[in-house]
Design brief:
The complex is a heterodimer of chains A (about 725) and B (about 80).
Chain A: E1 3-8, E2 21-26, E3 31-36, H1 39-45, H2 49-59, E4 73-76, E5 92-97, E6 104-109, H3 113-119, E7 124-128, E8 135-140, E9 145-150, H4 156-160, H5 162-172, E10 182-186, H6 190-193, E11 199-205, E12 210-216, H7 221-227, E13 230-236, H8 250-267, H9 274-277, H10 282-288, H11 294-297, H12 310-316, E14 337-342, E15 352-356, H13 360-368, H14 374-387, H15 391-406, H16 412-415, H17 424-436, H18 441-444, H19 448-463, H20 467-477, E16 480-481, E17 484-485, H21 495-502, H22 516-521, H23 528-548, H24 553-556, H25 573-587, H26 593-613, H27 626-629, H28 634-639, H29 641-652, H30 661-687, H31 697-702, H32 708-717
Parallel strand pairs in A: 2-7, 8-13
Antiparallel strand pairs in A: 1-9, 2-3, 4-5, 4-7, 5-6, 8-9, 10-11, 10-13, 11-12, 14-15, 16-17
Helix pairs in contact in A: 2-26, 8-25, 13-15, 14-17, 19-20, 21-23, 21-30, 23-26, 23-30, 29-30
Chain B: E1 2-6, H1 11-15, E2 19-23, H2 30-40, E3 51-55, E4 58-59, E5 71-76
Parallel strand pairs in B: 1-5
Antiparallel strand pairs in B: 1-2, 3-4, 3-5
The chains are: A alpha+beta (about 725), B alpha+beta (about 80).
């Protein structure tokens, strides 16, 4: 491998979860620098998402776009991100200015890269600049060197694949063998041709004896990586992963971890059984409650859905009886995978591959295209990962164009073929066109927000109508907010989750808030006030997980039986107490849950300020498609007319519902729209924002964020 | 009078069926249905605090009286990834 620049360094020791160092690499100048952080930096910005936010806030401007040289690609773990004694550690955050939303995006990702980066001496890696040639970065804590090297060239298929390239790279830098002292992140060729490119996190699974992968899927982080000319990054350290955070109170960590492990061992088999079939178990429950995003979120339930339930993947594909954590010590072990699956479609048909996943989101994405073929799910999962494109945005964008086809906004002449819901051949063809940037894939690879504009222009020109009128119609069912496609849940019957998606700072991704069941099914949030309180609390606690290097699933998807005795069982507070204990034992702090929420709120407000700077921080940017509020088209109302009529009766009380179904449908949508606006009003008030969704001065000052940039921004915004 | 008890997810691996019927009286409650299933399938581990009960897709309390043709499900708490 041709080394272009190299420095020697002495790795900092991890103490209490931190090294207090950031590795900065400028690919334009090939400068490599180690930044020492002041002691109060971690107190204020915690780690993970917090570090990414602060680096982006200080290092970029409102003019910065995803392809600007000054855009920074940040990868940061957190103080709790490396501890096999506690379940669900090893998460790290990728944060940058997004090609989808044009503002801050972050995506969390598992695997071994975050822990190894930390052991190699860094709390975060920040990559700026654009390289003239394709390169890789090698962070070698064992050799005590950091290098920028020319990206190795293998064969075309390997070079274009994110998984294939990463596997070869990991062997190349380790004497031709895999090992668990090194891990890589890579981006594939698809990330060069689509805005929703992902970053794969590759690590050696000593039980399966193969390289496995996890993905930072949302918002185009892989597209940024490839635009910078960065093919991959390898981190290596042979230091022991046991007590990887070098906790201040090791016994406290052990106790907190064993308590959480005991709850998982006892309760997961009785609940979602994630340790057996991963997140695919959700499909059945989503379908049962009309939340499965079938045909671009038109219908939440189908008689065909059972073909995509977890038992199908468990019986036909998943390798069984292998502990599947994406890091050591996690007994939730939800990272399922399959070996020796033969591809039957696409350019690599006939090849036998190992597949990591599918996750629920992959299954949901395929259902959004009206497809219920489990083998297509497997192939779709592998191709998306190999190409390096997001399973969610790919599926939602294809399904948006399918609905354009269904409703006459597009014809076969526009696409080049019949793009109907349920057409596997068309969906498969389009998937490969997106990745290769060819044919109709060039348009679809831009995502729903830009796709709407393209369709509106085309439709208006052909029909002699105005683009605005066409756009107004497309806005109803184009499932994006702030430029990011919805993740795979129908929100029509959960006002709280409508807010969860609409108010999410990065766009409609469920890792900020997921309230559908406690709202729609459990009925635990009956009033607007209840929903608004949840829309403040849950994003803050979830932000904390993204700042500390933790997976949320052991907390949120395994209900501690003790939670039933608390006033708000959905918060699962008995389990959160283990997390607070883990934090304090690791860092030597003495924080309460309230302290943690305050820390998170600072990060939340900082992210809101970045959104404001980039034109995505006001009420207008929090509006959601009518499809997300209710049955926007009559066919959706008709599919559940009895349910909707009953809902309307309850809303109107003694007043009679209108006689005609068309009038009922219209009234339902008016009431849904009105409720969403009322919800926004209350949530803004609770978050310390103006009615336009802009942070008030006192809110910014409260969290010590009123620097010169914030002051100017608020002056311009009239806050 | 008869109700249907549906099984989901891993429950089916224990029961080997999607659903069973249960004959009820005018006084049969959700708790009676829960006890019936517990006795029929001890391997299901339906413990309070770890599951919720739905009747006709609506969450129901254990003392709810069941009616003819009701559908009962024992569901996990789902709170999102």
């Amino acid at each position: 491998m041709k080394i272009l620049r190299q420095i020697e360094y002495k790795p900092a020791r991890v103490v209490g979860g931190y090294t207090d160092r950031i590795l900065r690499v400028d690919l334009g100048t090939q400068e490599i620098a180690i930044q020492e952080l002041p002691p109060d930096f971690k107190d204020k910005y915690v780690g993970g998402r917090g570090y990414a936010l602060k680096l982006i806030w200080d290092g970029t401007t409102r003019e910065t776009r995803y392809d600007s040289p000054e855009n920074i690609l940040v990868m940061a773990s957190g103080p709790l991100g490396n501890e096999p004694a506690f379940p669900g550690t090893s998460k790290f955050i990728v944060g940058t200015i997004s090609p989808m939303t044009d503002t801050f995006i972050d995506s969390n990702i598992g695997g071994h890269f975050g822990p190894l980066l930390k052991l190699a001496g860094f709390d975060a890696l920040a990559v700026a600049g654009i390289s003239k040639e394709n390169v890789v970065i090698l962070i070698d804590g064992d050799a005590q060197t950091i290098s920028i090297a020319a990206a190795p060239a293998y064969d075309r298929a390997t070079d274009e694949g994110a998984l294939s390239f990463g596997e070869r790279l990991l062997k190349d830098v380790n004497g031709g063998e895999y090992g668990d002292s090194l891990a890589a992140v890579t981006a594939g060729q698809g990330a060069c041709n689509a805005r929703f490119g992902i970053i794969n996190s590759l690590f050696f699974d000593i039980r399966r004896k193969r390289i496995r992968s996890k993905q930072a899927g949302r918002g185009g982080t892989g597209t940024v990586m490839r635009y910078k000319g960065l093919r991959g990054i390898v981190a290596r350290s042979s230091l022991s992963k046991a007590n990887g955070n070098n906790a201040i109170d090791k016994e406290g960590v052990r106790q907190a971890g064993s308590r959480l492990k005991a709850v998982i061992s006892k309760c997961d088999p009785q609940q979602l059984s994630m340790s057996i079939w991963g997140t695919t178990g959700l499909s059945e429950y989503m379908d049962k409650f009309h939340i499965f995003p079938i045909n671009n979120y038109q219908y939440g339930h189908s008689p065909e859905s059972s073909r995509l339930f977890a038992n199908v993947f468990l019986d036909k594909y998943f390798s069984k009886n292998i502990p599947d954590g994406c890091y050591y010590g996690c007994n939730l072990a939800c990272a399922k995978g399959a070996e020796n699956v033969e591809l039957t479609r696409g350019p690599q048909a006939g090849k036998v591959v190992d597949i990591d996943g599918p996750e629920y989101e992959t299954v949901g994405a395929v259902s959004s295209m009206g497809i219920f073929d489990p083998h297509f799910v497997m192939e779709y999962s592998w191709y998306c990962d190999e190409y390096g494109i997001d399973v969610i945005s790919t599926g939602v964008t294809i399904s948006f164009f399918m609905e354009c086809f269904q409703r006459g906004f597009l014809s076969a002449d526009d696409v080049g073929y019949e793009l109907a819901f349920g057409n596997i051949q068309a969906a498969d063809r389009l998937l490969h066109e997106i990745a290769s940037g060819k044919g109709f894939g060039k348009i679809v690879g831009q995502g729903v927000a830009r796709g709407k504009k393209w369709v509106a222009e085309k439709y208006a020109a052909r029909n002699g109508t105005s683009e605005d009128a066409a756009m107004a119609e497309l806005d109803k069912f184009g499932m994006e907010v702030k430029g990011l496609e919805f993740s795979m849940y129908i929100t029509k019957e959960s006002l709280a989750q409508q807010g969860g998606y609409g108010l999410a700072l990065k766009g409609p991704q469920h890792d900020e808030t997921w309230l559908i069941f406690i709202d729609q099914v459990h009925k635990e949030l009956p009033t607007l006030e209840d929903k608004a309180n949840a829309l403040k609390w849950f994003p803050l606690i979830r932000t904390w997980f993204n700042a500390t290097g933790l997976c949320k699933l052991p907390w949120i998807d395994v209900r501690n039986p003790e939670a039933a005795k608390t006033a708000e069982p959905a918060k699962n507070l008995p389990t959160l107490a283990y997390y607070v204990a883990y934090l304090n034992a690791t860092t030597g702090s003495n924080k309460t849950l309230e302290d943690i929420l305050d820390d998170s709120e600072r990060l939340y407000i900082l992210q809101k300020l970045i959104n404001l700077r980039h034109g995505k921080g006001t009420r207008a940017s929090d509006q959601i498609p009518l499809r997300a509020m209710g049955p926007v088209y009559f066919n959706e109302y008709e599919a559940r007319a009895e349910y909707y009529n009953e809902w309307l009766k309850q809303q109107l009380g003694d007043n009679k519902i209108p006689a005609s179904p068309e009038q009922r449908h219209k009234l339902i949508m008016e009431k849904r729209f009105e409720a969403y606006q009322q919800l926004c009003d209350i949530v803004y008030e609770k978050k310390g924002f103006t009615s336009e969704g802009i942070p008030k001065r006192e809110t910014v000052e409260k969290f010590g964020l009123m620097d010169e940039q914030a002051r100017q921004l608020l002056n311009e915004s009239g806050s | 009078m008869v109700i249907s008890i549906k099984f989901h997810g891993m429950q089916r691996a224990v029961t080997n069926t999607d659903s069973i019927d249960m004959t009820i009286t005018k006084k049969t409650t959700v708790n009676d249905a829960l006890e019936y299933v517990r006795q029929l399938y001890p391997g299901l581990h339906l413990e309070e605090g770890t599951i919720i009960v739905a009747v006709n897709l609506e969450i129901a309390s254990l003392d709810r009286v069941l009616r003819d043709n009701d559908t009962v499900s024992f569901l996990p708490n789902i709170a999102g990834g």
